[in-house]
Input
Amino acid sequence: MKIENKKAVAMHYTLTNAGGEELDSSKGKDPLHYLHGFGNIIPGLEEELVGKEKGDKISVSVPPEKGYGVRNDQNMLQVKKDQFEGVDDIKIGMEVQTQGEHGLQMFVVTKVFGDTVILDGNHPLAGETLNFDVEVMDVRDATEEELEHGHVHGPGGHHH
Output
């Protein structure tokens, strides 16, 4: 059975950046399960998996445009320390959630000087070329319920 829209896929993967540094892997864990065609994984990887079958191994290089996007300076915010309610010690690398016009957004504190804090709302992997080594472990038809919910259920899925 080939991977196409509405198929539930299980795969093992290792993700490395352009410098060969390992960023994430399913090695030693359960495979990643996803529903193909529903935007559950980044577009560049999903495109490359079309037509693959159980047992196939592929290496994919995904440019930022098909991964987590390019870095965007508009996702940088400058705020005053007094906007952090109940936080006394603001540190670089701290994650902050804000409620914006598009719902909750995550930011990371990148600079603190005086009363000013610089927040970065870009995805940590924005601007990165992502290299995936993937082994397809299983491909099956998705259930009606999975299609309705837009994700895989059962082992490796959202509903255990």
Summary: The chain has two domains: 7-68+126-149, 73-120. The mean pLDDT is 92. The domain at 7-68+126-149 is CATH 3.10.50.40 (Chitinase A; domain 3).
